[in-house]
Design brief:
- The structure is a single chain.
- Helix content is 13%, strand content 44%.
- With 319 residues, the chain is mainly beta.
- It has 2 domains: 212 residues, Jelly Rolls (Sandwich); 87 residues, Jelly Rolls, CATH 2.60.120.
- The strands form 4 sheets. Strands 1, 4, 14, 15, 16, 17, 18, 19 and 20 form a 9-stranded antiparallel sheet that branches.
- The radius of gyration is 20 Å and the shape is globular.
- The two termini are 27 Å apart.
- It catalyses: D-mannose 6-phosphate = D-fructose 6-phosphate.
Length: 319
C-alpha cells in the first residue's frame, strides 16, 4: 500500500498579465519575466504535474489517475477532477466567464466546465476584483458591451490578503492588478473573454474575445454565491472550511506546533503558502516548505503535521 505524500513539480504558464512574484515570493524557477500561473496540482493535458518523490517519481498526475486509482479512493470518472494554481497578476486579467459542464463538453470537448474559488495570498493596497455585473437581461448586457459601457456594466470589489472568493460557472469576473491568489478549480482550461482593455498580443493583434459564447453562459442577472465558512481545530492546527459545494471542498489550515492525528477520509490536495514543517505518516517524516504542493492519497488514512505554516487544502466534494 502506498504510504507517503505525493509531492508534485509544478508547471508554469507565461501570461500577458504575469510578472515575477512567483519567483520572488515562492522561489520557483520561472521560465519568463511574465509568468502568470503556477499549475501546482494538475492532471490537465495542457500542463500535468510530475511526481517528485517515492516509487512513482517521474510519472505525471494524469498517469497516476489512470493507472493507480486506488490512490484516489477509486473515485469514478475518466479525468482527475480538480486543478490548483497560484496566479501572479502584475496587471489586470481579462474580464471573463466560464461555462458549466454540459456546455463545455458539448461546445469545447472539455471534460469539465469551470467553477473556481480564490484565496487572496497577497495584494497591493486598494487592489480590486471584477465580480459580477449590473445588467438585468441578456439584451441589456449585450447592448452595454456593444456601447463599451464597461464602467457601468462591471461590478468591482476591493480585496485584502486573506479574503476568499467563490466563483461559480457563469460568473463574470476578473482578477485585478497587484494580486496573488491561490485558485482551486475544476480541471478545465475553458475561458471566454468578454473584455480585455483593448490589449494586443506579441504580434500586435487584438486579443480574441468571445462575446456571443460569454452571453450564452453568463449568469444574467448576477447573483452573489452564498457559502458559510466553518472553523474547527486539531491540536495546533486551526482548520477553516472556506467552501463546500458540488465540485470541491476547500480549507485554510494554520499550523502552529503539532497536529498528530489528522484523519484523511478522502485524498487531499495541499499547497503550502507560508512557512515550513514536516508531515508524518507512520514512522516516516517528510519535509515541506513554502511553495510545495502535494497530495495525501486515500491510502494514507491518518497523518500528522509539525511546524509553523499556512496551507490551502481541498478535495472533491463527496455528497
Amino acid at each position: 500500500m502506498y504510504n507517503e505524500p505525493i509531492f508534485l513539480k509544478p508547471v508554469f504558464k507565461d501570461r500577458i498579465w504575469g510578472g515575477t512574484k512567483l519567483r520572488e515570493e515562492f522561489g520557483y524557477e520561472i521560465p519568463t519575466e511574465t509568468t502568470g500561473e503556477c499549475w501546482g496540482i494538475s492532471a490537465h493535458p495542457n500542463g500535468p504535474s510530475t511526481v517528485m518523490n517515492g516509487p512513482l517519481a517521474g510519472k505525471t498526475l494524469d498517469v497516476l489517475w489512470n493507472e493507480h486509482r486506488e490512490l484516489f479512493g477509486n473515485q469514478e470518472g475518466n479525468d482527475f477532477p480538480l486543478l490548483v494554481k497560484i496566479l501572479d497578476a502584475k496587471t489586470d486579467l481579462s474580464v471573463q466567464v466560464h461555462p458549466d459542464d454540459a456546455y463545455a463538453r458539448e461546445v469545447e470537448g472539455e471534460a469539465f466546465g469551470k467553477t473556481e474559488c480564490w484565496y487572496v495570498i497577497d495584494c497591493d493596497p486598494g487592489a480590486k476584483l471584477v465580480y459580477g455585473h449590473h445588467a438585468d437581461t441578456k439584451e441589456e448586457f449585450k447592448q452595454m458591451v456593444e456601447e463599451n459601457k464597461w464602467d457601468e456594466l462591471l461590478r468591482t470589489v476591493e480585496i485584502q490578503p486573506g479574503d476568499f472568493v467563490y466563483v461559480p460557472n457563469g460568473t463574470i469576473h476578473a482578477i485585478g492588478a497587484g494580486t496573488m491568489i491561490l485558485e482551486t478549480q475544476q480541471s478545465s482550461d475553458v475561458t471566454y473573454r468578454v473584455y480585455d482593455y483593448d490589449r494586443r498580443d506579441d504580434e500586435g493583434n487584438p486579443r480574441e474575445l468571445h462575446i456571443e459564447k460569454s452571453i450564452k453562459v453568463a449568469m444574467i442577472p448576477h447573483e452573489d454565491a452564498s457559502f458559510s465558512p466553518v472553523r474547527t481545530a486539531v491540536s495546533d492546527l486551526n482548520v477553516r472550511k472556506l467552501v463546500q459545494e458540488n465540485y470541491f471542498t476547500v480549507y485554510r489550515w494554520t499550523l502552529e506546533g503539532t497536529a498528530g492525528k489528522i484523519d484523511n477520509p478522502h485524498y487531499l490536495l495541499v499547497s503550502v503558502i507560508e512557512g515550513q514543517g514536516e508531515i508524518n505518516v507512520g514512522d516516516e517524516t517528510f519535509s515541506f516548505e513554502k511553495g510545495d504542493h502535494f497530495i495525501v492519497p486515500s491510502t494514507v488514512s491518518r497523518f500528522g503535521l509539525r511546524g509553523n505554516a499556512r496551507f490551502i487544502a481541498s478535495h472533491p466534494t463527496v455528497l
